[in-house]
């Protein structure tokens, strides 16, 4: 059988997540051209096998383009520039950011007007999850587009789920990130309760992670909770944005979400106390302060569940 023709892939956005995802694509031998607004953030990928574009217009010459930026405004800005390139050859665009249902639908209309296929493909995970090969995608759009893109998605993680046409992947991702916020607040509450009763955080979380309630998420947040290392994986501002998207969707579909609403208020209160630039796991610190507890790092080596 003839060897399948490898598509020319373009990549827009090399922030924490975008860089890690593009790095895995390049390491897998993908013909990859990357662009980032601040070029210096993309340049290290040249040593990983990618090429770095000097201008976004160069990305327009690629068969398949991935976009991984922060907000819908950023997505719209870069796609406008992509579509305005003089030599636009892109056939498919895969958008991996967390954006609203309305933004995703507008993007689909923009691309359909230029006969460009579109796959909504938001992700579950952070940069460390990407590096461990544990990233997962939820996708919606034409099944034929998903089938064509799937081999590239598999190079970046552990699998993808196709949930149907249109913007269904966006609602799944919004629900996912609402749950992320609610479960982190709940984990903070029970961890603080256990410690106030005299149980060290590392001992409580060791039991929890071995129980039926343990998960990939509780395990990889355990080092932050035990040793108070809040190196950013996902900022409170981004979590607040996703909770807002979830509450907006809840109003649209007439679905009550009391826990999500309360969690959104607690994230806002935490940010008002000055915890804005560290990881959203600082919800633990806010909960401890509310309980009159001053936390200290336990300086215990704990497994995050992601190490090889």
Question: Keywords, please?
Answer:
single chain, 308 residues, alpha/beta, 6-stranded parallel beta sheet, 3-stranded mixed beta sheet, 9 strands, 49% helix, globular
Summarize the model shown:
By secondary structure, the protein is of the alpha/beta class. The chain is built from twelve helices and nine strands. The strands form two sheets. The protein has a six-stranded parallel beta sheet with strand order 3-2-1-4-5-6, with helices on both faces.
Descriptive overview:
By secondary structure, the chain is an alpha/beta fold. 49% of the residues lie in helices and 11% in strands. The chain contains twelve helices and nine strands. The chain has helices at 16-27, 39-42, 72-83, 101-112, 127-131, 143-156, 168-196, 201-210, 216-227, 236-252, 258-272, 283-290, and strands at 8-12, 31-35, 51-52, 64-67, 92-95, 117-120, 123-124, 136-139, 159-162. The strands form two sheets. Strands 3-2-1-4-5-6 form a six-stranded parallel β-sheet, with helices on both faces. β1, α1 and β2 (31-35) form a beta-alpha-beta unit. α7 (168-196) packs across α10 and α10 packs antiparallel against α11. The radius of gyration is 20 Å and the shape is globular. It starts with 7 loop residues before the first strand and ends in an 18-residue tail after the last helix. 41% of the residues are buried. The mean pLDDT is 94.
Topology (SSEs and partners):
Elements: E1 8-12, H1 16-27, E2 31-35, H2 39-42, E3 51-52, E4 64-67, H3 72-83, E5 92-95, H4 101-112, E6 117-120, E7 123-124, H5 127-131, E8 136-139, H6 143-156, E9 159-162, H7 168-196, H8 201-210, H9 216-227, H10 236-252, H11 258-272, H12 283-290
Parallel strand pairs: 1-2, 1-4, 2-3, 4-5, 5-6, 8-9
Antiparallel strand pairs: 7-8
Helix pairs in contact: 3-4, 7-10, 7-11, 7-12, 8-9, 10-11
